[in-house]
Design goal:
- By secondary structure, the chain is mainly α.
- The chain has helices at residues 2-36, 41-64, 71-83, 88-104.
- 85% of the residues lie in helices and 0% in strands.
- The longest helix has 35 residues, at 2-36.
- The termini are far apart.
Length: 105
């Protein structure tokens, strides 16, 4: 019994990490594609982050934690939690963009 619990915890840990890597890839891919299409970087950042967050919720709910509770309530709680770091990302991106533009052009 104890061995099964450890194995399941380890599996959840690995799957959670894989989902996180995939979320980052989705975020970067959407951001890159939208900026390549000349969308302003702030809008591209928000869209990329939003796609990564949505993927995180769906994959972690179904694959990592195998939850079956109310979908809308869970999504709302997850979005409220995940949107808090979004406030600092535009500021950080703006600082980086200013630095890069002043240095390279």
């Amino acid at each position: 019994m104890k061995s099964y619990a450890k194995r399941e915890s380890f599996r959840s840990f690995i799957v959670f990490g894989l989902v996180g890597v995939l979320n980052t890839g989705i975020d970067v891919a959407v951001f890159s594609l939208l900026t390549w299409w000349q969308l302003p970087w702030l809008a591209a950042q928000i869209a990329g982050y939003g796609c990564g967050v949505l993927n995180s919720f769906l994959m972690n709910r179904k694959w990592t934690f195998k939850q079956r509770g109310p979908f809308a309530k869970g999504l709302l709680r997850f979005l409220l939690l995940m949107c808090s770091p979004l406030d600092s990302r535009p500021l950080a991106c703006s600082s980086c963009m200013s630095c890069l533009e002043s240095r390279y052009g």
